[in-house]
Amino acid sequence: MLPIHEHMAKQQIAGLSLTYIEDGAIQKTECFGVLELGTTNKVNEETIFNACSISKLLTSILVLKLVEQGEVDLDEDINHKLISWKMPESDYTRAKKVTLRSLLSHQAGIVDPEDSFPPLHPVVQWPSMQDLLQGATPYCPKPIESTFEPFQEFHYSDAGYCIVQLLIEEFTGTTFPTLMTNLIFQPLAMNHSFFSSTLPTDHSACGHHKNGTLTTPSHPLYPYHAACGIWTTPSDLANLLIEIMQSLNGKGKLDLTSTTIHELMHPQGCKEWGGLGVFLDGQGEQLEISSLGWGVGYQCMLVAYPYLEKGFVIMSNTDTGVHQMQGIMGDIYRSFVQ
Description:
Layout: H1 4-11, E1 15-22, E2 25-33, E3 49-52, H2 55-68, H3 91-95, H4 100-104, H5 129-133, H6 158-172, H7 176-185, E4 194-195, H8 225-228, E5 230-232, H9 234-247, H10 258-264, E6 279-281, E7 288-295, E8 298-305, E9 310-316, H11 328-337
Antiparallel strand pairs: 1-2, 1-9, 3-5, 4-5, 6-7, 7-8, 8-9
């Protein structure tokens, strides 16, 4: 592939940060470009990016931690725990109940309404998960319901993760960001990771469109923490991947058993490539887990081979307009797996 800085110039990518994992440890982090085109503020190891849907992997890890603590059950009817909102009953849910497992694997029978789950609108307040799921906000214009029997079809769903967020917040009586900070970020020393309802810090990379122009606002926020709300660094996400690797050997800092962490990487329901908040490829020691983040102004990719104890995380502050595998991230992926 072209040198990274040449590829970035060709695709008008403002900034990029890349962390490699080898032998179960961070091998190196490389940083390129700037926080905002037209400035001299360079990307460094502490630069924070919007990881968008990579949030779903973190949410799945948090749920598994609560499973280990006996707080929730992956296979329990979610309506047993939900309070302010319930999954509407239908012939589909009577045949098979919606569970955390089906939500985390995008197989709960939920199809997100068209044009739903955009970034925070400057004049529309931060929505509650209850109002959002009831279709009472412009972020999700229709009430959420199951339109297929669980585990019969795969439909990528932000709404499903909003349900997960509401469930764990109501059952624990604690906000999602607080739970994530206390149970995941602090034990793993993910010190540059957070879910923000305000503009991020000065160390945060501004978002850019594919033509190199700045997004408006410069840091688009997503008011759905569990689905796509995290701001973080490649190194912090690498620490999460290392935790997964160590947990397989019973040596993780989160005290997740190898049996529990295997659930994350086990094919769920009707799709052999669908885990809990991750996508799967390969088998045995060659098993690959991956997660992609793609939002207004940002693109990210996370890939790991847990049994081989290697992987990488790429984050950029430019939406190139093409799928990650068709751009610089795909080239980096292919050079890594050769």
